[in-house]
Design a protein that fits this description.
By secondary structure, this protein is mainly alpha-helical. Helices cover about 60% and strands about 0% of the residues. It is built from 15 helices and no strands. Helix 1 packs parallel to helix 11, helix 4 crosses helix 5 (about 110-120) and helix 10 (about 220-235) packs parallel to helix 12. The protein is globular, with a radius of gyration of 17 Å. The two termini are about 15 Å apart.
């Protein structure tokens, strides 16, 4: 558990970083979605280096349009905010309503898990060795914000929300690691401390080793995390991190979303380029910022410090 006492400036910084994390997730999603399933070479041939929200891609998106990474994260955040605390049933209900809305994109494993809840009231999918995708890890951000200051709560809530759709050891490890990294960034820990946290997961699950980088950015959670770690720990700015991540291609909306969340938490809301924010729906930017602040104010760290 993080026990460092916060002062007023630390509170403001944590809120800025929380807002940066959620808005950063949407930015990474929207930037990467048009090049999802493209290779690095195909992106290079078409764009040189993709630096702007161009829209298009296999989903024929509008510039700045987000996908399931953002939408599923919103389902979780809205449920927590509405309940004023943890509500797994509320999260599952929101995901079910989202699926009924016929979203533009939804992964097969996520669809199967949500439908099992809708049709059979199954809120925890059974363990499955084939469910090593990144669909649970990509929506970890709201849990990380809500559980700031309590590692045990983070792990418990992360696994509960993950297991609605994904029940796999590597998915679990990746999701928990993302939450821990977010906690470190939100409380102004160094890049070196965050890297040590990632390396602890690699020590437990060597398949996540990202140095040297293997150059894969698929929807397999191992490839996703290797890409995010490789790009984030080499970055010197929010913009540089997200650009390098999405230009790896593959599952670029999800790698972009996770990298954007971590970079937004580390570099803060003010680090996100205005040209990207202008492309996003204004209501989406406002809601993600408000939800981020609300979730972190509900967290154990803020409650403990009476902030």
């Amino acid at each position: 558990m993080i026990r460092r006492m916060f002062n007023i400036s630390s509170k403001d910084a944590a809120i800025s970083r929380a807002r940066g994390a959620f808005i950063g997730l949407t930015v990474g999603d929207a930037l990467g979605a048009p090049v999802e399933f493209m290779t690095r070479g195909e992106i290079r041939d078409k764009y040189g280096v993709l630096k702007d929200m161009v829209g298009g891609g296999w989903l024929r998106l509008k510039p700045g349009q987000v996908t399931d990474d953002t939408e599923m994260s919103l389902c979780i955040a809205r449920a927590i905010a509405k309940a004023g605390g943890w509500s797994l049933t509320g999260i599952a209900d929101n995901l079910a309503a989202w699926l009924r809305s016929k979203p533009i994109d939804v992964g097969d494993t996520c669809r199967r898990g949500i439908r099992n809840y809708m049709l059979r009231d199954v809120i925890e999918t059974p363990p499955n060795e084939w469910d090593g995708g990144n669909g649970a890890a990509m929506r970890t951000l709201p849990v990380g914000l809500f559980t700031l200051g309590d590692q045990s709560l983070l792990e418990r809530c992360t696994l509960q929300q993950a297991h609605i759709t994904h029940n796999h050891a590597l998915s679990d490890a990746a999701s928990i690691c993302i939450g821990r990294l977010l906690h470190l960034a939100l409380t102004e820990r160094s890049m070196q401390q965050m890297r040590r946290e990632a390396e602890q997961m690699v020590a437990q699950f060597p398949t996540f080793c990202f140095d040297p980088y293997k150059g894969l950015a698929t929807g397999y959670v191992v490839d996703t995390m290797q890409t995010v770690f490789h790009c984030f720990f080499r970055s010197r700015s929010f913009e540089g991190c997200v650009i390098e991540t999405v230009n790896q291609g593959g599952d670029a909306d999800t790698t972009g979303a996770i990298a954007g969340a971590l970079a937004g938490a580390y570099y803060g809301e003010e680090s996100i380029p205005a040209r990207w924010l202008k492309k996003l729906d204004k209501k989406l930017v406002a809601e993600t910022g408000e939800l981020a602040e609300g979730l972190v104010r509900l967290s154990p760290l803020f409650k403990a410090q009476r902030l």
